[in-house]
Structures are given as structure tokens and as C-alpha cells.
TrEMBL record:
Coiled coil: none annotated. One of its GO terms (molecular function) is acyltransferase activity, transferring groups other than amino-acyl groups. It comes from the Bacteria. Residues 34-197 form the N-acetyltransferase domain. This is Acetyltransferase (GNAT) family protein. InterPro entries: Acyl_CoA_acyltransferase, GNAT_dom. Keywords: Transferase. It comes from Isoptericola jiangsuensis. PROSITE patterns: GNAT.
């Protein structure tokens, strides 16, 4: 079922403080007899153990490493002192956690995402229900505090085959499924018999990712995803943060070696940052495939793989096969390092026809997930 039209303008919206309907105080959590406090970086090992225990119990297709947890605390926009909770039992063992996260670069929709979980051995005691009530209340406070007079969203992400009890808690709180995602994979083991196509983008140059093209790639990404539902511009801090799994050796960008600067500057869709870069004579990245490697997931899935985290094309360059060329080049790099599969996730309502591109390249669905939200 298509997602509802969520194109409310700021002129038709009530003030964010009114729409958020934030409580003056946060609900107390009494279930389970736990002791609650905010998370700190010193909690990273215990938090890693809990999150991986939950992932294993819920048959989630990934595991985390300590670097992924510690880097959460390094982002300056995260406020763990007010936007997180850890629940410990009488022995001091961590058995539940919650995190409420907002993004600094939101300019079209101000978003708050709710994360959390309860140790499998402590489920059924009401801890999850009360903890989620705290998350929702804090999320409403964060929206009200943002001061951004924009459409607003409270969101939760869930695997399609995740715990039924958790899904019920979320849906009873008023969250509705809005977007659906498919994880796809492409077999790289038999490229002699099942080769990848040779793709030569029209008038463009496919090059390995390099640090000097990183900012140009961020600008390309912000343009490419401007018309994707739920996407917001990434600030330089957001863009370079959270790269524990980043595999630059597999990542590829596509550059226009001779852009029509005058035409791009005259195009009203060219954003100000890109215009400044063009005037300064900086490289113009027009498509990209940024890939990641997660060795800790190989045993969980039973095969080695590379993961395409972000793939996109500037809107003015769509149809010139830049993104497929970058994707194929990245898959060849993965295969050269011995990876058996290439994986990625796609929004099932992607506006660029990505599903057809992936199917044509031999990708097939392995499982799915969804985003549930309250739109304000």
C-alpha cells in the first residue's frame, strides 16, 4: 500500500511545541525493579554485549563491534545525558537500554528516532512497555525543544520478522508502518558464468573513492536524495561520522570531468553549496557507491559480503548510468577481496527505479524491514 501523502507545508502547521504535545515530566519506569541512569561512554562494553544478545535472540542478521558503540558517544549532536537510559538489575548487570536521537541537518522534516531493547531473559515483565513510554515522551520533548517549525516525525525501525510483542507495543502507541525496505544480495562467486555487465557512463569518469572527493560526494548525496522520502541533508559532521565499517577500497565515485558550469549555475535546482564548489573549480561528483565491510556478520549470515551503504546520482545526471557503473565497479572490488556476495538495502518506493536496476544486475531479496512513525 502506498505511503500517505505527507506534504504538509509550514503554513498549514500548528507550532511544533503544540504538535509535539510534550509532557512536562517523563514517566517513571518501575517494572522489573531496575535502577535507571543515562548512558556514558564507559558503558560501551556492556551496551555492546546487550545489543548483540538481543540481536542473536531476535535472529537479526547483524552483530556490532565495540568501535560502533564507542563512536555513538563521539557525535557532538547526541545528548546521552538527557536522551538515553540504561536499566541495571540488583547485581549491576545491564538488562535494558533506550536512546532517543535527533539529527542536526534536518531542514524539511524534523525527525526523532527511538532505539531500545530488553534482555531476552527479562522480557514479559513490562519493562519494554514502560521503557518505550519513556522514549516516546522524551521524543516528544526533543521535538518541542527543536524549535523547528517543520513537519515532524517520531520513528521506529523494525525487522519484518522481529518480536511480535515489540511490534504490538509500538503500534499500540500510535505508530503506523510508513516505509518498507528490502535487503538484496548479488552472488559474486561465479562471475565467469554469471558476469556483471560492463557499464560505461556517458561522458563521465569512474574513479576510486578518495578523501579529497569526500566533501564533493557529500554534496552529490544531498542533491541525489533531495526527492527521496524521509531523507534529509547531511551536515559535514554527520557525513564523516560513524564510519567503523567504511571500506574506501571498495567505494567508487563518478566525476564529470567537464561539467557545463554555466548551465548548472543557471539551474534553480542546483543548491548553493554545489554552486559555490562549481565557481571554485572543485571536482563535481555526480554519482557514488559507498561500501562497507562487517566481518562480524560473516558467521551470522554464513557467507562473506560487502555492503553498499549509500548509492546515488545527482538529479541532473540521472539516466547517464553513473550509479550502476559505480555499483558494478564496487562489486568487482569486493570480489577481488574474496567476498562471496554484494548486499544492499532499498526503499521499496524508491523514486528512481532502483529496484529494476538492482534486479537487472542480479540482486534478489533476502529479507525485509520497515519504518513505523507518528507524523506530526
Amino acid at each position: 500500500m502506498p505511503s500517505p501523502d505527507l506534504t504538509a507545508t509550514t503554513e498549514t502547521l500548528a507550532p511544533i511545541a503544540q504538535r509535539a504535545d510534550a509532557p512536562a515530566t517523563l514517566p517513571e519506569i518501575t517494572a522489573g525493579g531496575l535502577t535507571w541512569r543515562p548512558a556514558t561512554k564507559a558503558d560501551a562494553p556492556a551496551l555492546l554485549d546487550l545489543r548483540n544478545t538481543i540481536a542473536e535472540a531476535d535472529a537479526e542478521p547483524y552483530r556490532e563491534v565495540i568501535e560502533e558503540i564507542t563512536e555513538l558517544f563521539d557525535a557532538p549532536w547526541r545528548r546521552f545525558d538527557t536522551d538515553s537510559l540504561l536499566g541495571h538489575d540488583a547485581d549491576g548487570t545491564l538488562v535494558a537500554y533506550a536512546q532517543v536521537e535527533s539529527m542536526p541537518g534536518d531542514t524539511r522534516t524534523v525527525r526523532v528516532v527511538l532505539f531500545g531493547g530488553v534482555h531476552p531473559a527479562r522480557r514479559g515483565e513490562g519493562i519494554g512497555r514502560e521503557l518505550f513510554a519513556w522514549q516516546l515522551a522524551r521524543g516528544r520533548q526533543v521535538l518541542a525543544e527543536s524549535g523547528k517549525e517543520l513537519p515532524a516525525r517520531l520513528a521506529v525501525y523494525a525487522e519484518d520478522d522481529g518480536p511480535v510483542a515489540k511490534a504490538r507495543i509500538v503500534e499500540r502507541a500510535g505508530f503506523t508502518p510508513r516505509r518498507f525496505y528490502s535487503e538484496l544480495r548479488r552472488d559474486l562467486r561465479h562471475l565467469d558464468a554469471d558476469p556483471l555487465p560492463d557499464i560505461a557512463p556517458d561522458g563521465l569518469r569512474v574513479v576510486p573513492f578518495s578523501a579529497d572527493l569526500d566533501e564533493a560526494t557529500r554534496l552529490a548525496h544531498n542533491d541525489a536524495f533531495r526527492d527521496h522520502w524521509g531523507s534529509e541533508p547531511q551536515t559535514p559532521e554527520q557525513w564523516t561520522h560513524g564510519r567503523t565499517g567504511f571500506a574506501p577500497q571498495w567505494s567508487v565515485v563518478v566525476v564529470d570531468p567537464d561539467p557545463d558550469v554555466d548551465a548548472l549555475l543557471a539551474d534553480p535546482d542546483t543548491d548553493a553549496a554545489t554552486a559555490d564548489a562549481l565557481r571554485a573549480g572543485q571536482p563535481l561528483v555526480v554519482a557514488y557507491a559507498l561500501n562497507e565491510r562487517f566481518d562480524e556478520d560473516f558467521a551470522v549470515r554464513g557467507y562473506t559480503f560487502g555492503y553498499t551503504a549509500i548509492l546515488g546520482t545527482r538529479r541532473a545526471y540521472r539516466g547517464r548510468r553513473g550509479a550502476p557503473a559505480a555499483l558494478v565497479a564496487g562489486m568487482h572490488a569486493m570480489r577481488a577481496d574474496g567476498m562471496e556476495f554484494a548486499c544492499l538495502d532499498v526503499d521499496t518506493e524508491n523514486p528512481t527505479g532502483a529496484q529494476g536496476i538492482y534486479a537487472g544486475l542480479g540482486y534478489a531479496k533476502t529479507h525485509g524491514s520497515r519504518m513505523l512513525s507518528i507524523e506530526l
